[in-house]
Structures are given as C-alpha cells and as structure tokens.
Amino acid sequence: MQLAFSPAQERVDLDTAVAPAVIAALHCLRVAVTVFDSDERLVFSNRHFNYLFRALPARADLLGLCYEDLIRLQIAGGEVSPDAGDVDGYVAWRRAQFRPGEYRPLDIRLADGRIVEIKARLTHNGHWIALWSDVTGARHAQARLEDAIALSADGFAFFGKDDRLAMCNDNYAAIFGYASAAQARGSAFRDMLMRAAEQDLLRMPEGRAAWIARRMDIHRAPAGVLTVETVSGAAYLVRDRATVEGGRAIVFTDVTDRRRTELALEEQTRALAETRSEAAAQASYLADLARRFDRAAADADTTKTTLMRTMSHELKTPLNAIIGFSDLMRSMADRFGPEQVKEYAALIHEGGHNLLRLINQILDLTKLSAGRYELCRTNVDAGAVLWTARNAFEARARDKDIALDAAAPSGLIVEADENAVTTMVFQLVENAVNFTQRGGAVHLSAACADGAVCLLVADNGPGVAREDIARILRPFEQGGRSTADHTAGAGLGLTLVKALAEAHGGRLAIDSAPDEGFSATVSLPAKAV
Fold first, then answer.
1. What is the mean pLDDT of the chain?
2. Number of helical (H) and strand (E) elements in the chain, helices listed first
3. pLDDT tens digit string along 59-112?
4. Could you give the residue ranges of the DSSP H alpha helices within 371-492?
5. Does the domain spanning 374-525 belong to CATH 3.30.700.30?
6. Going along 351-494, which residue ranges are E strands?
7. Residue ranges covered by each domain of the chain
8. N or C terminus of the chain: which is more exposed, having fewer CB within 10 Å?
9. DSSP category for residue 375
10. Which tens digit of pLDDT belongs to each residue from 148-175?
11. What architecture (CATH level 2) is domain 285-372?
12. Percentage helix, strand, coil, to 5, in the chain?
C-alpha cells in the first residue's frame, strides 16, 4: 500500500485517501501505526496509538503535530522520563531514528515499566511510517534468559540464522579467548574456531584444518555431541543443536571428572539414538511421498480416461441425433407432413442446443481453471435474476405440473458479472425442474446474511445422499436423484456454478438427503453501502 499526499492535503484525514476497509484493518491491529508527512507532521494514527500512550489527547486532536511535539507531550504527560532530566537530549535521540538509511528499531521505556519498540521507515515520497509495539514481555523474557545463562556454570551460546553469536555468557566467551560476552557478541562461528586455533586454546589432535572441518560438520547437523579439550587440561561436553527459529544453541559442560565423563557418554548414546530416529522418520517420509506420487499418477490416468469417455459420449449423442434427423428430412422430405417436419426440426434444434451448451460449459470451466475468465462486475439485482429465471422455466414446469415460485425482497444488489449470475441461477433452476417429479414444487428465494446475498433454489424432489454431494460437484459426475434424467446433461452444471461463485469470492452450498429434496445456495458478496 502506498500513501501519497500533496502539500495541500498533508493534514487531510487519511480515511478520505485510503479505502475504508484498509483503515478499519489498521484500527484492528494490536500495533500502533502512525504516518508522518515530509515535515514530520502526523497525518494518521490508528486507535492503538492512544491505547499505548493513554495520557495523550485523542488521536484526532494529534493530527498536524510534528514528531517532536508528540515526544514532548509524552514527557509532559508522564508517559516517559528522560534520563537525568535531559529533555532536549532525549528528544534528539528519539528524532534521530527519522533519518534516511536508519533501519534499527528503537526501544523506549515508559514510566509505568512498559517497553515500546519503534520501527520507522521512509517511503519513496518522503513520508515516514512508524510502528509502535509493546515488547515488554519479550524484553523481560530476554533479560531473564540472559540472567539465567550468566549464573550458569556451563558455557551457553546462541547463534542466529546468519551463524553469528547473538548471546552468550562469560564462561563461553572465555573458552575462545574473549574478555567478556559483550566482546564476543556478533562474531561468526567459524571465525571463533579460527581464533581458538590461532591462539592455541583448544587441542586439535588431527590438525587444525581437519578439526575445524569436523567441528563444522557437527555444527551443520540437526543435533551433535562431541568432547572438546583445552590446552590447560579442561574437558567439555559440547552439545550443538538447531533451534526452532533456524539458529543454533551450544552448551559447554565441564566433564573433567569421571562422573561428568560418564554423563558425556550417555549423552552421546542418546544423541545417536535421536539421529537414528530422525533418519528413520525421513526414510518413512520419503516412502510415503513415493506412494502419494504413485496414487496421484493413477488418479490422473483415471481422470483422463473418464474425461475422454464422457466427452466422447456427450458429444456423439447430440451429433448423431442432428445428423440422423437431418438425413431423414433431406432424403424423405416429400413424404413428411408439416407436423412431422416440425417435430424433427425441434429434435435437431434440441440436439444442437445441448451440444452448444456442453461446449460452452467446457470452455467456461477451462477459462476458470486457467484464471482467464474475465468478470465484468456491475450492480446486479438478485431478485430480478430470480424472477427472470422463473419466467424462463415457467412453461417447462407447467408441463410437468410443477409449482414454480419466486420470492425476493427488493434492493438486494450484488456486485458481480450479470451473465455469470444468470448462468448460475438458470443452471440451478433447470436442474431442479428436470429432477423434480411431476406434481412437485421448486422455490426460488434471495436473502442477505453476513455481508452476502444468498440465492436459494430448492425443490422437493428425490434428493441425493449426503455422501454423494462432494462427488457431484466434480466434472462429469451425476447424482442418483433420477437415473432417467441423466441424459439431460453431462454433469458439468454444478461444477460450473461452483467455479463461477468462487471466482466472485462467494461459494456454493448444497443440502440434500434421499427423499428430502435438494437445495442449492449461491452466496455472493453484497454491494457495499
């Protein structure tokens, strides 16, 4: 997201320049967000900013104040207390973070003991964005960890993802010839090994290069254990293990006496067992992955075979009808009366219509799966679409003595492709009329719920088993509501409806059970008011 303000607009409310949904999202964050213009004047802050600094005025009253003004208000309100009362020095220290090329976060301590981390970034148009996070728990946890490892008799060290020393105690630093932990911090692991070798601090029986190579191999493994001896005669059990965040944790335990040596042997045995377990788990994972690939290949072959078989049948059936009846009309036209010609023409028209529908459905599904289906979104009246569908299928429903009714309140507007919405509703109504038994009923309705407009097509036909619902949503799959009507389609209608609904950010939900009817609900995002 880019925030840009002209000089004449730098104090305008950000709500008029950014989508309301983005503003609402910023206000929901548990992190304070502030935006300053090129003169360091506040142009936006979310609600969490007032939560962090409770003594400040309301955020609306802070707009237009420069960053220095905010700092001094925090001081005046007792939120922060500069060391030794040096207000100007404290303000200068805080403002130094708003400097091009300065990416380091800044921790400030509040008077009530909380610690807030500030991260500031300069945008391409000269504005500043600052994030304010309450890191009190994290900083206290780090301080407790530092205190714990400082009091330990073992040597502790933590390395980051870049393999540089992030934290250690003085015992660990002394093993590598450092005067203190602070002096060692930031050193690369390999450089520390080279330092120990150059200063002849550790015994390396196989030679420096071989010992360092062996030590690096252990360091790269998920977990490793070895014994290290110093030139002074001390022996350490070294446990080197990967951490969850991708770094390394290393512990040096003094095992000079016999008891510590026995513990070292036990630890080596446990480490070996863990390594074997991990190797077995990896082997099992690879075997399972191979089985999955085999199943996927088999499923792909089955899907291809089903597709070719179904396509062959569904294309040939209407084509045979068209060719057969047209041949009869061409060769025996003089023997047919007007009614018979009309009948054969209707059958040819129906076959051509079915063939065209199948091809259009396949093309639409291909575009949707490839992400190339272009939606022309407009304001669509959901109720009007339902009434149009009712009128279109009224005659067919009347022929089967099916009661077809529609009910939808006015003003239900969806922002969608009108042709796609019409296609979805028409497909569902056609299915309902085709599968509903003579004397049954089909009901169309629309309602608004949870920011979506729900279009419902329900019938009291034979329904399908619940375990078949997921299957009939797949291409070329048909349910068991009425085997006599399977010739009415290729099993692509529900698949197309589902794909079109999801392309709009909506969904298709089906509820059915044997002898309990069939209902399909298309939920589409309602137009924002």
1. 83
2. 16, 17
3. 999 999 999 999 999 999 999 988 767 899 999 999 999 988 888 899 999 988
4. 382-399, 418-435, 469-472
5. no
6. 377-381, 403-407, 413-417, 441-449, 452-459
7. 7-134, 139-256, 285-372, 374-525
8. C
9. -
10. 777 777 888 999 999 999 889 998 999 9
11. Orthogonal Bundle (1.10)
12. 50, 20, 30
Could you tell me which residues come within 8 angstroms of residue 168 by beta carbon, excluding any fewer than 6 positions away?
149, 155, 156, 157, 158, 181, 184, 185
DSSP string covering 123-150, please? Answer: -TTS-EEEEEEE-HHHHHHHHHHHHHHH
State the Cα–Cα distance between residues 406 and 383, nearest whole angstrom: 9
pLDDT band at 186 (very low <50, low <70, confident <90, very high): very high
Residue with tokens 């870049």: 162
d(CA 459, CA 441): 6
pLDDT one-digit tens code per residue, 299-331:
655 655 555 556 555 666 666 777 776 766 667
Q: Is pLDDT of 468 > 70?
A: yes
Q: How far apart are CA 45 and CA 22, in angstroms?
A: 13
Do 108 and 115 meet the contact criterion of CB atoms below 8 Å apart? yes
pTM over 0.90: no
Instruction: Determine the 3-state secondary structure of 218 from DSSP.
Output: helix
Same fold, 7-134 and 139-256: yes
Alpha carbons 154 and 171: distance in angstroms, whole number: 7
Q: Which CATH class is domain 139-256?
A: alpha beta
Token pair for residue 396? Answer: 């067919």
- Residue 468 is encoded by which pair of tokens? 């078949």
| Distance separating alpha carbons of residues 310 and 366, to the nearest angstrom | 16
Helices 87-95 and 67-76 pack at an angle, to 10 degrees, of 140
pLDDT in tens, 203-217: 898 999 999 999 999
